[in-house]
Amino acid sequence: MPPTVSSPNPDDGRRPSVRPQALVPLVMIVAVQALVLGIGAAFMLYAMVTGEVWSVPGAIFLTVVFGGGCLWLTNAARGLWHGKRWPRAAAFTAQLFSLVAAGAIVRPFSTLGAVALAVAAVVAMLCLFTRPVVDWTTQEVRADLR
Known about the structure:
By secondary structure, the protein is mainly α. It has helices at 23-50, 56-81, 87-105, 111-128, 131-137. Keywords: Membrane, Transmembrane, Transmembrane helix. The chain crosses the membrane at residues 23-48, 54-74, 86-106, 112-129.
């Protein structure tokens, strides 16, 4: 990926000419989270079709939640990539949910999985608040209001 090239004066309100490098891992993490939720929705749908669920209403609810989360995070990843402002809140909220999930699975399931989930969430949050990413996603906001 080519180096980040921004406008000569970072406070002049112009959009950077190249996407920030910190945006790549952020978008990848959010996209992978969307993929995992999509796989979860497909698995729940498969389990309902094959009769492997204990509670059909619960499985339907989880399928809708996982599918909605998949669509939400897919749009958030695309929005971040295109420099939109709204996906920052969506991505941050998803990372908070990931940290909560990591804390919940650390004891009963997999410590390694929980650590991986937590590290990905922290990396995404750090990338989300770097100055180049904030500039990229607030391009339609005047520089004096940022």
